[in-house]
Amino acid sequence: MNDMGYYMYDYMYEYYSDYIDYYSDYKSRSLSLSVGEMSSSLATLQHLRYLDLSWNDFNGTSIPVYLSSLKNLRYLNLSRAGFSGRIPSQLGNLSKLQYLDLSQNYYGSYIVDLAWLPRLSLLSDLDMSYVDLSSARDWFQRVNMLPSLKVLHLSECGLNSILSGSIPHSNLTHLEVLDMSGN
Question: Which of 86, 98, 102, 183 is the residue whose CA sits 20 to 30 A from 92?
Answer without folding.
Answer: 183
